[in-house]
């Protein structure tokens, strides 16, 4: 039996600021994880990644990250690394957590 | 202190201008990231989890007050008001914006600093004993050699594309405070039977995924032969080092796979050729560098202030016990300023603290500061009579933590709070351990104990040479920490042994506590240090303590 595909989003860092950004349905970038467009198949994920990677003048270090769908139908990070990227460091109140 | 000559100045300024153009072209889209990445890395610019990071070299760990104030200015103007001192005598800024970095580099160039060769497969910032020029046990100040190596290795055309990065450390003292045996090349200044100074040359040390203690390729190398000899080692490595596998590309693997005798033979053969073609550095250059590191003119007046302050103030006495080391001039002391307050981030200093340190160096310390690989700041030359005043100023700035060499003087890499390579966090572990031992009030009772924490296998936190080492890993999507015991980064360098399965974050601090309790219960007396006790007892009693504890916790 084929393993069920785990949904993914496209993430990168902003070219100038360097902070984590997420690829949206309108093929723009949001600073909020929950606004990312979600791919529910490998083909869809590859397509999003390809489209996102074309925007070299806005972002750096683009890749796919696994998500799970939250009760509000917004994607949530699966791995702790991605969860940290939505917040910032744990030793100071800096980064996204301070901007919310 | 060494001052840039016209050549150095022009070189650094040109590099800033060149990088400014490269950043502009990246931002306007003329350069892709693939094209830009090697260029930014050559200038110390990394991409981390939440932002870019700029790594600035502090060659051989030496700074003057003007440079420290400039670091404070950069921290304030372009970062979030602090900087992070690393285990390789660098400072890292964690929040610069890409477009601001050329301006930062320009400000650094104003005070003769740069970020060149702080990344990439080249010869990195040459590190040295942080007590250099001050230590009572020193044969000779190693920094003139380190500066010579900086000039020789900077932009050296043959060594810009090595198989992998290459790190050199040097100590001028028999007590190795520079971890020379864990570097690609370690140099120890020694004297031969005729009393002439030279170097013991050690190669193939390193930590990372394959930790190894370096091996001696030359017991005594005359000073004048240093550059041709190092060129010979680098040439052998450059030609024969593995380029097929990133994880086997360091010189330690070449030495290990080829065998020490064969490496020695190849190096000596290359050296004979190099020596014929190149006699070494010009004598006038060497003497000019040596003159730049002449000791300050010491003030030999003594007073009873130092002794009286210790009698009157137990807190000051504690500070002196741990944070003041013996200076070669008996009227002076070496003051180590701990960047490890209880619950703080190891190696971080705020802009205000940097300015306090700069002021103290200027007023009391012959304008010299040092950064140690243990992520602390040193005032290397303080008249003993002035140490009470220095202590008071440090206390007011929150910099008087009296814990050098003790359990809370923890080395920790940035870990997954910042680093894109990390597999787990390091900083919260360091914070939790220092808080716990502060609650126990056992730190002085425990005595010398080095805990070192890395957030991934690359071992920037030197965990392999920690008396207690901690390695953070990702175990099935959860942070998990392996413990090693018995590591040693000094002249008796030893790689620590893994205790067994790792611990989740919640179970880690109790395990560390159990290890320390075991030591306290089993040591012969208070004079037997943790490392000595471990060497006598072996790993078994410590393993029993932590794994039984862990099982009990599970059962509960």
Strand-residue fraction of chain A? 25-35%
- Which ranges of chain A are low-confidence, i.e. pLDDT below 50, for 5 or more consecutive residues? none
> In oligomeric terms, what are we looking at?
heterodimer
Low-confidence spans of chain B: none
**Overall pLDDT metric of chain B:** 96
Number of helices of chain B: 18
CATH class term of the largest domain in chain B: Alpha Beta
Please tally the helical runs of chain A, counting DSSP H or I stretches of 4 or more residues: 3
Largest sheet of chain B: 6 strands, mixed
- Give average pLDDT of chain A, whole number: 95
Principal-axes geometry of chain A comes out as globular
CATH third-level topology of the largest domain in chain B = Sulfite Reductase Hemoprotein, domain 1
Strand segment tally of chain B = 21
Question: Helix/strand-derived class of chain B?
Answer: alpha+beta
Approximate shape of chain B = globular
Share in helix of chain B: 25-40%
Can you summarize this structure?
Chain A is of the alpha+beta class and 100 residues long.
Key words describing this protein structure:
heterodimer, A: 100 residues, 5 strands, 24% helix, B: 556 residues, alpha+beta, Sulfite Reductase Hemoprotein, domain 2, Sulfite Reductase Hemoprotein, domain 1, 4 domains, 5-stranded antiparallel beta sheet, 21 strands, 17% strand
Task: Describe it.
The complex is a heterodimer of chains A (100) and B (556). Chain A is an alpha+beta fold. Chain A has one domain (8-99). Chain A has helices spanning 42-53, 80-87, 96-99, and strands at 8-14, 20-23, 29-30, 59-69, 75-77. Chain A has a five-stranded antiparallel sheet with strand order 3-2-1-4-5. In chain A, β1 (8-14) and β2 form a beta hairpin. The relative contact order of chain A is 0.22. With 556 residues, chain B is an alpha+beta fold. Chain B has four domains: 6-110, Sulfite Reductase Hemoprotein, domain 2 (Alpha-Beta Complex); 127-292, Sulfite Reductase Hemoprotein, domain 1, CATH 3.30.413; 308-396, Alpha-Beta Complex (Sulfite Reductase Hemoprotein, domain 2); 411-555, Sulfite Reductase Hemoprotein, domain 1, CATH 3.30.413. Chain B has helices at 6-27, 33-42, 65-78, 101-110, 143-153, 226-240, 251-258, 260-277, 283-292, 305-312, 314-323, 351-364, 387-396, 427-440, 443-446, 505-522, 530-537, 540-555, and strands at 45-47, 52-57, 62-63, 82-85, 90-93, 127-128, 168-171, 185-191, 197-203, 215-222, 324-326, 332-337, 348-350, 369-371, 377-383, 411-412, 451-454, 468-475, 478-485, 497-498, 503-504. The radius of gyration of chain B is 23 Å and the shape is globular. Chain A binds chain B through residues 13, 15-20, 56-57, 60-61, 78-81, 84-85, 88-92, 94-96, and chain B through 26-29, 32-33, 47-52, 80, 94-99, 345, 416-418, 420, 425, 427-428, 431, 474, 477-479.
